Amino acid sequence: MQSFVNIKDMNKDTDRNPHGAARGVIRMAALALCVLLLGLAGCAKAPYTGRSQLIMYSEADEVKMGLAAMQQVLKKEREVTGTAESARVERVGRRIAAVAERPQYRWEFHTIEKDAVNAFCLPGGKVAVYTGLLDLADTDAELAAVVGHEVAHALARHSNEKMSRARMVQVGQLAAMVGVAAASGSSQAAQAVGDGYAGAMNMAVMLPNSREMEYEADHIGLLLMAKAGYDPHAAIEFWQKMLKQAGGKGKSDFMSTHPTEAKRIDALRAMLPEAMRYYRPRDDGASGTAGGGAVGSTGGNAGGKAAGSGSGGTPPVGK
Ligand SMILES: [Zn+2]
């Protein structure tokens, strides 16, 4: 909305500073551009939290962008397939995706061979988990905490929101520059902004999420893992482990882009009662927080589920 104020002010100036007919044409173009871009803006609401969002790109755009970006990632990184680790990521991912209720995203869950405690989700539901993180997530429920968080970023369309915010800033700048161009009778300034415009769009998707988005992903992720039948208490255990690791050597890549402070775990703890309302334990023994995970397990243990939890399928509930 700021951009409208700028345009108006600029136009006042140009009215006092006549440069012929071109001025009017450029001014009209600037206004048309703003109407077009603002017209495309949608006010959406984030799922579960109901937070108002600025969303300017379609879901189809997100799917296309995410797919292209993931293909780029997979060209550079070494993907693991056909192992117990990749089966584990796929298994947990599918369970979370099933409750995310966005079949149009065509979810993908990739395992990447890298000694980095990291995971990410690209727009449109393309998720990658690094083997370094799998070593830290002892149980499927702990892995579900991470996957749930990443899926939540896609579900809440955080990349779209970042791009939309960047686009709004660009619209403002472009409008200002076109105003300057109108005043000076030169279109070079507007051209310069136009050149930088597309690049800025691409950059926005790589920008770190805001703290607000991270907390929202924690919140939604906790509800998703519970809906998928994983005890949400496992999220607390996992993030505590992450915090300890970050406090030690601080080698976690995930933590470089995610808030690590104890406050975050406190916030998660406060969300537990809500998450427990969604929690429907499965009787496959893989839901609980305790017991042996499937890390590195091969063969025999069909499906690699946490058969060693010994809880008879009833995960520990309470605290
Ligand atoms: Zn995150």
What does this structure look like?
By secondary structure, the chain is α+β, with helices and mostly antiparallel strands. Helices cover 60% and strands 8% of the residues. The protein has helices at 2-16, 21-40, 59-76, 84-100, 131-136, 140-155, 158-184, 188-204, 211-227, 233-248, 253-257, 262-278; strands at 42-45, 52-55, 79-80, 108-112, 119-122, 126-130. It has a four-stranded mixed sheet. Strands 1-2 form a two-stranded antiparallel ribbon. Helix 4 (84-100) packs across helix 6 and helix 6 (140-155) crosses helix 10. The protein is elongated, with a radius of gyration of 24 Å. The structure holds zinc ion (ZN). Zinc ion (ZN) binds at residues 149, 153, 209, 214, 217, 258. The site of zinc ion has 6 residues, from helix 6 and helix 9.
Short description:
The chain has 319 residues and is an alpha+beta fold.
Q: Order of strands across the widest beta sheet?
A: 3-4-6-5
**What class do helices, strands and sheet pairing give?**
alpha+beta
Output the helix-strand order: HHEEHEHEEEHHHHHHHH
Record field, number of beta strands: 6
What is the general shape?
Answer: elongated
Which ions and ligands are bound to the chains?
zinc ion
Cα distance spanning the termini: 48 Å
Q: Report the radius of gyration as a whole number of Å.
A: 24 Å
Tally of separate helices: 12
Q: How much beta, percentage-wise?
A: 5-15%
Which descriptors would you attach to this protein?
single chain; 319 residues; alpha+beta; two-stranded antiparallel sheet; 12 helices; 6 strands; 8% strand; elongated; disordered N terminus; disordered C terminus; binds zinc ion
